Amino acid sequence: MMKKIKNKKYTKTIMFFIYESIYLLFIDLFNQYLLVKSINTSDYFISNLLILNVIWILIYLIIIYMLKPKLRKMVSLIINTIILIISLANYFMYSYFQSVFSWKDLFLSGDGLSFINSIFKFINLKLILFTLTSIDMIVLIFKTKTKKIYKLKSIQSIIIIVMIIILFTSRKVYIESHFNNTTDGWDSSEVINNYSNYYQNWIEPTELMRLCGTYEYLIKDFYNSFLKKDNAIEAKKNAQNYIKNNYNKETNEYTNLFKDKNLIFIMMESMDNWMVNEEVTPTMYEMMNHGFNFNNHYSPAYVTGETANTEFIANTGMYPSVNKLSPNYAYVDNTYPYSIANLFKKEGYIVNSFHRTNGFIYNRSAMHISLGYEKYHSYVDMGIAEENLDLDSYIINNGYNKIVNKNNKFMSFVITYSPHSPYTYEKIECQTNLSEIKKIYPDLDNEELLCAYSAARETDNMFKLLLEKLKEDNLLEDTIIVAFSDHPNNLVILDDETEKLNKTKFFIYNSSMDSNQIETITSSINILPTVINLFGIDNEYLYTGYDALSINEEYVIFRDYTYYDGTDVKNINKYLQDKLEYSQDILTTDYYGK
Q: Of 89, 166, 485, 514, which is least surrounded by CB within 10 A?
C-alpha cells in the first residue's frame, strides 16, 4: 500500500486529504475565535479541543478514505458545506443570543426565521473573508482529483479497523480522565469552573464548544439531542422518593383570595423591564399598582427557544431538561394533569389558548392540547387579517369573544407578539405608535430603542382595550389578569447586571385591590404555584417552584447550574440540584402517564 501511495499518481489524492484536514481545523479555529475573540496559540494547541478535533478528523478521513472517488468527493462536499453553514449560524446566534448552534435548534427554525432581518447588522469584513475563504477551500477540495486506494478484501481493512478502535479508545480514555471529575460535589466552590460540570451534564453550548472543539461538540450534542435514552425505571423511582420526602400541602393568608374568579393568563413577548414605565406603558403601570407586582422577577432560559421555555415552565411548574429538545417537542405526548389548564378545567373552567401564529411554531397546536387547553386559537381562528398580525391590540379587537366567556368561568392563555425583535421603522408595530413615543422622548434618535418602546406601547394598547371591554361587560371585578414576560429583550440589551440575569416583569392584576409590591425573588417556576394557591385550586402535585407569596425560600436557578439568591450568583447546591433532577424525572418518565 505504501508503495502505491508514494507513487506520483497518488499525489493529488494525498493533497485531497491534506486540504480536507486544513479546512476542518480552519473551521474549528473560526468557531473558537468567535467564542473567545482571541486565540492564545499555546493554549489552543495544547488544550482539550485540539486533541478531540484531531481524533474526530482522523476518524472522518479514514471513513472517506474507504469510499470510491466520486462518492468521497460528494460526501466531502456535503459535510464541508454543512459545517460551514453551522459555523455561520454560530456566528449570528452568538452575536444575537450569546449562544451557539445545537441540533435541538432545528426544531425551532420556524420561529428563528423571524430574526432574519436582524442579522445583517452583524455582517462585517472578517465574516465575509471567512466565508469566501471557506468556499474557496471547499471548491479546491472538490476539484482535487482522487483515486481509489482502498480494497475491501485486503490488509488495509485490518489496519483501518485497528486504527478506528485505537482512536475511539483514545477518545474514551481522554474524556474519562479530563471530563469525569465531579467528585468534589455540588457544594464545591470550584464546581462552576470544573469542565466536567459542563460535559457530564451537557449544559451551556458555548462552553461545550470552547472546551471540546467543534466536532466533539457536534457529534456528542447530536447524540444527547436525539439518541440518548434515560433510565426510566431509576428516574421514576427517584421521582417517587422525592415526592415522598418533600410533599407538604401548605396554605397561607392568600389562599382562596381569587376563588371562582376568571383568569386571563398572559405571556408578554420580550417585555423587558426598561420598556415599562408610566409614560410608555401607562396601562401596565397602573395594573402593577392594583394587585401583586413582583419587583424581583427573572425569566431564565433552560432550553433553546426562550419563549417556549418560559411558556412550558409557567404552564407546568416544572423545569425542562437543560440538555434535551424543547419540551414542546420532546414531551408533547406526555400527560400533564398538573398543568394550569388541566387544574382549572377540573374546576369547571373553559380553557383555551391564543396567539397570532399558526400552530406549527413551537409545535403549539399539539402541545397546548397536551397541556389541557381545549383549543389553540391562531390568527385564523380569531379572524385577524394578515396585515394586523403583529399588532397585539387585534388579539382583543378580534379575539375578545373567544377569550372571554360571558356564561361560564374561563381561563384563557394569551401570548403577545408586538415587542418581538427586530426593531425597525418598517414594522407596523413601530409605525403605529411611533409618533406618541417621539413625543415622550423628543431627543431620542435611536431606531431600535424608539421602535422597541413603540412595540411595548402596542402591548399596552392590548391591555387597555381588554380592561375597557371587561368593564363594559361587568366582568372586570371577577377577572384576574396574570401577566409575565417570556424573556428580556433580545436585541436592545442594556448593559447592567439585571439583563444578564434575565430580569423581567410579573404582575397579578385585580381591579379592586390596592398596590402590593412584592420584593421576594421569583422566576418563571413560581408563577403556577402562586396562581393556584390564590385561586384555592385543590391539587396533590409537588411543583419544583415555591408560592411567591409564601416567603420561606428565595432563589433563581440558571441553566449552567448556578443560582441567584438576590445578592450573588453562586454554585448550585444539592438541594437545588435535586429540584432540577426531580423535574427531569417527571418529564422523561411521563410520570403521570400510562
A: 514
Q: What is the DSSP string of 82-144?
A: HHHHHHHHHHHHHHHHS----GGGGGGHHHHGGGGGGGGGG--HHHHHHHHHHHHHHHHHHHS
pLDDT of residue 489: 81
Spatial CA neighbour of 508 closest among 533, 488, 487, 490: 533
Q: Please, what is the angle between helix 205-212 and helix 48-65, to 10°?
A: 80
Q: How far is it, in rounded angstroms, from Cα 464 to Cα 452?
A: 18
150 and 45 share one domain: yes
3-state DSSP percent of the chain in helix, strand and coil, to 5: 55, 10, 35
Helix crossing, 306-316 with 527-534: angle to 10°?
30
**Residue 449, SS3?**
helix
SS3 267: strand
Listed residue (176, 191, 230, 189) closest to 52, CA to CA? 176
Residue 297 lies in a domain: yes
Q: Residue 169 — pLDDT band, cuts 50, 70, 90? A: very high
Mention every residue, 6+ apart, whose C-beta is less than 8 A from residue 253.
Answer: none
Residue 353 sits in the same domain as residue 471 = yes
Start-to-end Cα distance in the chain: 59
Residues 417 and 561 in one domain: yes
**267-302 residues labelled b (16+ CB within 10 A) or e (exposed):** bbbbbbbbbbeeebbebbeebbebbbbbbbbbbbbb
- Listed in sequence order, the residues at least 6 apart from 557 whose beta carbon sits closer than 8 Å to its beta carbon are 300, 319, 523, 525, 563, 572, 576, 579, 580
* Contact call for residues 204 and 210 (beta carbons, < 8 A): no
CA dist 370 and 385 (Å) reads: 28
* DSSP assignment string, 546-580: --TTS-S---EE-TTSEEE-SS-EEE--HHHHHHH
Percentage of residues in the chain having pLDDT higher than 70: 89
Q: How far apart are CA 141 and CA 135, in angstroms?
A: 10
100 part of a folded domain: yes
CA 117 remoteness from chain centre? 20
Question: Do 433 and 522 lie in a common domain?
Answer: yes
CA 209/CA 90 separation, integer angstroms: 10
Contacts of 263 (CB under 8 A, 6+ apart): 344, 349, 410, 411, 412, 479, 480, 481, 482, 531, 535
Residues 109 and 160 in one domain: yes
- Number of helices and strands in the chain (H, E): 24, 12
- Domain of residue 160, residue span: 2-181+203-217
Total of domains in the chain: 2
Average pLDDT of the residues in 532-544: 93
Provide the sign of the torsion angle of the four alpha carbons 372, 374, 380, 383, taken in this order: negative
What CATH number should be reported for the domain holding residue 307?
Answer: 3.40.720.10
1-37 pLDDT, tens digit per residue, is 444 445 556 888 999 999 999 999 999 989 988 876 6
Stretch among 26-30, 301-305, 544-548 having the lowest mean pLDDT = 301-305
- pLDDT of the residue at 293: 97
Contacts of 580 (CB under 8 A, 6+ apart): 319, 322, 544, 557, 561, 572
259 & 208 share domain: no
CB atoms within 10 A of CB 325: 24
Give pLDDT tens digits for 192-223: 446 677 787 787 788 888 888 899 999 999 98
Task: Check residue 433 and report its DSSP letter.
Answer: H
